[in-house]
Design brief:
single chain; about 425 residues; mainly alpha; 20 helices; about 75% helix; about 0% strand; globular
Length: about 425
């Protein structure tokens, strides 16, 4: 392990320990632990804010544990701590505030492991699919808790469903990538949403479908509101301490990258620049939420953690801001509230479309963000909220449409020039 990677591990441990400490501080260790245990076998489909379902302390403790487990899996399998793995760990951390628990994720990860063994490959080669594929954790708890089963049959159905989903994900992910050609950073979100369509259809056919409900914390408290800004400052400081002025010059280089998959900013720019970029994105996202009066609850913090994580793997202000602007315009034109769950999450997670702005320019990014909002508010019902990365699902469909149109225009333009 290089000195840089050791420093990155120390940074991740600081962020994880800080999250756990805030969770324990908010309501005290015993209450936070009680809330944490409640969450382990609770409903988790979109949108179940764990700061309500369990409590703020339990939600943060759950996020810290899941991030620590993810980091341990990365380390034990000898996977380098790079842009994709940092994005994966922080995404798991964020979504463990509103959907992921150890109990509902383990069957999916086991399914991915079985797929690797079946294909004659090491689990290491599928580690990113396992991390991001935990988006289907709610499938486990839906089958076990929400469709009328009980006892051993409910537990068996949940485990079997999670394993089956994980087993199918690797092959399906490769096919989904071809649909959007790398312009949707949340490719596994599209993959899980596609699988979720069939799972939801089967449940509906068996008359076991369940309606989507929204559990949303409107007043989570100041500790949760300060978490991301503090972390963002730590990231900026860590990046500057790592490389000094070199981080700033490399950050300028990073801002010129398109972000199209795969774009590991640690390799394409530098580790210091990637950390600086992550911190800047966290500050931008936090400033927006505070400016519009949004709630720093579980789902919003999940969006901010994901935004920060992908600051090492595809997103930067130059390619993300046009998409955000498109979401804001769509929200206002169609008479929606900027602080409603759909629009505020679409703004944060919709930056999955940042590579479109990076490749084709800000106007295309703006148009993609505009379309993304209207689509993402419909797609959740298609998979019954069992794909936590609903924005990745909608983003993949939006990217497929926009990228196809732009590639066609570009190819025709090149032919005319010839």
């Amino acid at each position: 392990m290089t000195e840089i990677e050791k420093s990155l591990y120390r940074l991740m441990l600081v962020l994880i320990a800080g999250t756990a400490a805030v969770g324990l501080f908010i309501e005290g260790p015993s209450e936070a632990l009680r809330e944490f245990l409640i969450l382990q076998w609770s409903q988790s489909r979109l949108i179940h804010d764990f700061s309500v379902t369990g409590g703020p302390g339990g939600a943060l403790l759950n996020a810290a544990l899941m991030a620590a487990l993810s980091l341990l899996v990365v380390r034990m399998n000898g996977v380098r701590l790079s842009g994709p793995t940092i994005a994966g760990v922080l995404t798991v951390m964020g979504f463990s505030l509103f959907g992921k628990t150890a109990l509902n994720v383990v069957p999916v990860v086991l399914g991915v492991w079985l797929a690797a063994r079946s294909a004659g490959k090491t689990f290491k080669s599928y580690i990113m699919i396992a991390l991001f594929g935990s988006a289907l954790g709610p499938l486990t708890t839906t089958l076990a808790l929400e469709i009328g089963l009980s006892g051993f049959g409910a537990v068996a159905a949940g485990i079997a469903g999670g394993i089956a989903a994980g087993f199918i994900l690797p092959g399906l992910a490769m096919a989904m990538l071809r649909l959007h050609e790398g312009y949707n950073l949340y490719n596994i979100g599209l993959t899980c949403g596609f699988f979720g369509l069939f799972a939801a259809a089967l449940l509906a056919a068996a008359r076991r479908d369940v309606p989507i409900t929204v559990v949303w914390n409107g007043a989570p408290g100041p500790a949760m509101a300060l978490l991301i800004p503090v972390f963002s400052v730590v990231l900026v400081g860590w990046g500057l301490a790592l490389e000094g002025k070199g981080a700033i010059s490399s950050f300028r280089k990073l801002m010129k990258l398109t972000g199209r998959l795969p774009s590991d900013f640690l390799d394409m720019a530098s580790p210091g620049a990637a950390l600086l970029n992550m911190g800047v994105l966290g500050l931008i996202g936090s400033a927006y939420v505070a400016l519009v009066g949004g709630s720093f609850n579980g789902p919003v913090l999940g969006g901010l953690f994901t935004l920060i994580g992908f600051g090492a793997f595809g997103k930067h202000p130059r390619n993300s801001l046009p998409v955000m602007a498109g979401v804001i315009a769509s929200t206002l034109i169609f008479g929606k509230s900027l602080t409603a769950p759909g629009p505020i999450l679409a703004l944060l997670f919709g930056t999955t479309l940042a590579p479109l702005a990076g490749e084709f320019g800000p106007l295309v990014g703006f148009a993609a963000g505009f379309l993304h909002l209207v689509l993402v508010e419909r797609t959740g019902a298609w998979h019954m909220g069992m794909d936590l990365y609903n924005n990745g699902f909608a983003g993949g469909l939006t990217a497929g449409l926009v990228a196809a149109a732009m590639e066609w225009i570009r190819s025709n333009k090149q032919e005319r020039m010839k």
